[in-house]
Amino acid sequence: MRGVVAIDTCAIIHFMYINRFHLLKLLGYSVITTVYVQLEFEQGHSSSLAYYTKLINSGEITKFPLEIEDLVEMSNVPQSKRASDAELSCFVVAKRIDGKVMTDDRKAINYIQRYIQMPTDRITQLVEVLIEAYLENYLGDHELRPIQQTLADNQFIIKIDLANEAAKRRWMMGGYS
């Protein structure tokens, strides 16, 4: 088991676009989120709220309670448009339980890390999960480019060639003969 990952709104939506949320379970992650993520979904589009609700109701994601100390730590981070309470709450919870945080918002990551010290190996993004799934043979070569295109069609641009990067990492690990 790889551990617990606190996932934020944008990462969940990106999984919705590619219909691959099950990869987290296959990779051994236990997925949690916070009430602030739920609030963002409730303020968003009905399709993403329905997807989030389905994940909660099926037990794919567990709502994790915030403690007073979490709220105090969140209040010590100045409010900014660069990071939402949803992203911030996921960082705070992941830090407290020594888990990972998953967000695809690089600006939020950079901003929050100014105030909340978290090792970089405890922060993950969809690209890393997709590559990890590829390395574990849960995704094949033929799936990565369509996934990247689907994400691009939904305004999530991955700046690398995902299939090429995944194959390169497999080769570096000695996965090809």
Blueprint of the fold:
Layout: E1 3-7, H1 9-18, H2 22-26, E2 29-33, H3 35-43, H4 46-57, E3 61-63, H5 68-75, H6 85-97, E4 100-102, H7 106-113, E5 123-124, H8 126-135, H9 141-153, H10 162-172
Parallel strand pairs: 1-2, 1-4, 2-3, 4-5
Helix pairs in contact: 3-6, 5-6, 8-10
Please characterize this protein's 3D structure.
The protein has 177 residues and is of the alpha/beta class. Helices cover 56% and strands 10% of the residues. It contains ten helices and five strands, in the order E-H-H-E-H-H-E-H-H-E-H-E-H-H-H. It has a five-stranded parallel β-sheet with strand order 3-2-1-4-5. The chain is globular, with a radius of gyration of 16 Å. The mean pLDDT is 93.
- The name CATH uses for the topology of the largest domain is Rossmann fold
List how many beta strands DSSP finds: 5
Specify the oligomeric state: single chain
End-to-end span in angstroms?
Answer: 28 Å
Strand order of the largest sheet: 3-2-1-4-5
CATH homologous superfamily identity of the largest domain: 5'-nuclease
Shape designation: globular
Series of secondary-structure elements, N-terminal to C-terminal? EHHEHHEHHEHEHHH
Low-confidence stretches: none
Strand content: 5-15%
Portion of residues within helices? 55-70%
